[in-house]
Design brief:
Helix content is 49%, strand content 10%. The chain is of the alpha/beta class and 671 residues long. The chain folds into 5 domains: 158 residues, no CATH class; 145 residues, P-loop containing nucleotide triphosphate hydrolases (Rossmann fold); 78 residues; 168 residues, Rossmann fold, CATH 3.40.50; 79 residues, Helicase, Ruva Protein, domain 3 (Orthogonal Bundle). Strands 3-5-6-7-4-8 form a 6-stranded mixed β-sheet, sandwiched between helices. A 6-stranded mixed β-sheet has the order 9-11-12-13-10-14. A two-stranded antiparallel sheet has the order 1-2. Helix 12 packs across helix 14.
């Protein structure tokens, strides 16, 4: 097939009258083949056979589906007549008797290549080869038989329906291909990609030296925007776009080749284009990756790849377009357009809100529209919630689904009053919150992002022994900033196989980019210990994992927090690339007493608790919360309010868990 973007007449202009003329032309052509069969029988019997004018078909009056099909696949007269012979058998059962009579076999009520050679003009043996148009494009199918020339011939079902004017996908493609219904692109940067892609295919279609159109590759995280771009490109070029998920491709070459041939046939019949969806599986296995590569190489119809990472180019030309997130200005425009139908009173109350939303959330056009729609549909003024609060919660909801599959959501109910820390450490935490709040102003309005995009990520290291408040500090920041906090256990991210750790980290950061979430990486020393001398490939791999995380943290739009119990084990080069480092000290007796005062909820019954004495227990805040909870269970089991004796019993259990001896000075004078 030649490179073309318009192989058929636009089916949208087909009228009932046009379809009727097309069918009349088909029936006239079939009548000509029947005439040939009847003449063959008459000659065989020695009977006179008059060739009357009315017995021959009239000249076609319209380029109907039969003519279009013959032109699209460059069928010879002999190949066309074989096809018509098979179509006639489908439309008129009496044709089977004609075939049986010609073959002198009452059981052979079907067409064969041998019958076609003996009856039809311009016979050509090459029409039977696997490379012939009839067989390559599956226009006719060969049934089982002892010999090729004696095997039954049958017109392909899709081709029969096409000739009759019934347009639908081949049955074998219905389980794989899905029509794309997408919104049009909404921002200028994406429209530029559409224009460039259209120009690329239009130019390639006029280049006689090109055998195939180049593959267009759309790379980026925003799947909906890539779908919109692909849809607009194909709509402009009068192509019907279908999506084929890469994870559904068969791995054996014979089935892959059949799929490619059927898709190419649909392109010739109905001007389809394919969008190969590689977004669903971010880490394809080797057989699947080979199947994707093979399909790209052999497919001839217009093809677009949607993926997060670039595929390597082999023989087929692949042109890549990066689909980036909307800029700050584009996001603000999208927000204003999506909220344009609000009442003037609500609009006035949103003064400065759009700036704040863009500062915290990096949403795609689809997510902005969805968040606006959800906020407008769920906002209830009777609940004393402002519309800004409804918008904020809708934005948070847009960023959760992907991260929920990769990390653990942390409840953010802790406040500054719950966090017992020295004033200088609290001051740094307040400074972190200020950086997150004002990043849009400093980076965009004040021009710091214009100098360099590197190092704009807000990263922090919380170091200290277990239970000193590192996780609670992240909860406090999430509550203060009204952002979700997701905890990632780095020990579960590390993989012994080279390259897998980076893939795991990439999935986490990619999922978090859209929403203003706080990423809390626990046990950072599991991956970021002091870099040892490189002795083998695994040592080099570990250093690559460190570098990759640092790179993503520096580019991450939100706040990324690392926690460690062993700050001294971390590489100094690693520490220099973090914006904030906070050492969480072990609480002194006064701080421990303050933690005890906040350990029991107001509804918990207590009796004569001495917080000064409780502060003498040399344990961190996390252990204090464990002791308080255990003592509550002990007291409830005795149907008593929580007392010092219950706390003592619970403390002994905690000390046993810590494998730590309890000193007499710690509990002196308790009971």
């Amino acid at each position: 097939m030649t490179v073309s973007l318009n192989t058929l007449t636009d089916t949208s202009i087909i009228t009932d009258a046009w379809l009727k003329r097309s069918q009349d032309d088909l029936f006239a052509a079939i009548a000509r083949i029947r005439f040939v069969l009847e003449k063959k029988i008459a000659v065989k019997k020695g009977e006179p056979f008059e060739e009357q004018v009315e017995s021959t078909p009239q000249k076609q009056q319209v380029d109907g589906f039969l003519t279009k099909l013959c032109k699209s696949f460059s069928l010879s007269e002999f190949e066309r007549d074989i096809l018509l012979l098979c179509v006639g058998l489908e439309l008129n059962p009496s044709w089977g008797d004609l075939c049986a009579e010609i073959a002198n076999d009452p059981k052979q009520t079907y067409a064969t290549f041998s019958l076609a050679m003996s009856v039809l003009d311009h016979s050509d043996w090459s029409a039977f080869s696997p490379a012939s148009k009839l067989r390559r494009w599956h226009l006719v199918e060969i049934g089982a038989g002892n010999a090729l020339t004696a095997s039954p011939l049958r017109v392909d079902e899709r081709i029969l329906h096409y000739l009759m004017g019934d347009q639908h996908l081949d049955q074998r493609l219905l389980m794989l291909l899905e029509p794309i219904i997408a919104n049009s692109v909404q921002i200028d940067s994406h429209q530029q990609v559409v224009n460039q892609a259209i120009a690329t295919w239009s130019s390639a279609s006029n280049d006689n030296q090109l055998k195939h159109l180049p593959v267009l590759q759309l790379c980026g995280e925003d799947v909906a925007s890539k779908m919109a771009i692909a849809s607009d490109v194909c709509s402009n070029l009068e192509l019907t776009l279908y999506k084929i998920p890469a994870n559904l491709l068969p791995h054996d070459l014979s089935n892959l080749q059949l799929i490619a041939q059927l898709c190419d046939r649909e392109y010739s019949l109905n001007d389809i284009a394919l969008l190969l969806d590689c977004d669903r599986d971010e880490a394809p296995n080797q057989p699947q990756d080979m199947a994707i590569g093979y399909l790209i190489e052999i497919l001839q119809c217009p093809m677009i790849i949607s993926s997060q990472t670039r595929r390597r180019q082999h023989q087929r030309t692949i042109l890549t377009f990066d689909v980036r997130s909307p800029s700050v200005d584009e996001q603000q425009t999208l927000w204003k357009e999506s909220l344009s139908d609000l009442d003037s009173e609500i609009k006035d109350s949103l003064n400065g809100s759009i700036h704040e939303l863009v500062s915290y959330f990096n949403l795609s056009p689809t997510h902005i529209y969805n968040a606006s729609l959800k906020a407008k549909s769920t906002h209830n003024p009777e609940l004393n919630h402002t519309f800004h609060q409804s918008l904020w919660e809708a934005c948070r909801a847009q960023s959760r689904p992907r991260l929920d599959e990769l990390a653990q959501s942390v409840e953010t109910t802790a406040t500054w009053e719950d966090l017992i820390l020295p004033s200088k450490e609290k001051f740094v935490l307040h400074d972190i919150a200020a950086h997150v709040r004002q990043r849009l102003t400093v980076y965009e309005k004040w021009g710091f992002a214009g100098r360099s995009r590197r190092g704009l990520g807000i990263s922090a290291l919380f170091a200290g022994s277990s239970g000193t408040g590192k996780t609670m500090a992240a909860e406090v920041l999430g509550n203060e900033l009204q952002l979700d906090v997701y905890r990632i256990d780095l020990s579960s991210v590390i993989d012994k196989y080279i390259g897998e750790t980076e893939k795991n980290l990439k999935r986490i950061f990619d999922a978090a980019e859209g929403g203003g979430v706080i990423l809390l990486f626990d046990e950072a020393d599991a991956l970021f210990g002091k870099r040892t001398e490189v002795k083998d490939s695994h040592d080099r791999h570990a250093n690559v994992g460190v570098s990759y995380l640092l790179q993503r943290m520096e580019a991450y739009r939100g706040l990324a927090v690392l926690t460690t119990n062993l700050k001294n084990s971390l590489d100094q080069a690693f520490l220099r690339r973090l914006r904030f480092v906070i050492q969480f000290p072990f609480p002194d007796a006064e701080q421990r007493a303050e933690i005890w005062r906040r350990a029991f909820p107001t509804l918990t019954p207590t009796l004569e608790l001495d917080y000064i004495k409780l502060g003498k227990l040399s344990v961190a805040g996390g252990n204090i919360r464990n002791i308080a909870l255990n003592s509550a269970f002990i007291a409830a089991d005795h149907n008593e309010p929580v007392q010092m004796k219950h706390i003592l019993q619970a403390a002994k259990i905690e000390y046993i868990k810590l494998e730590k001896p309890m000193m007499d000075a710690e509990t002196k004078g308790w009971v």
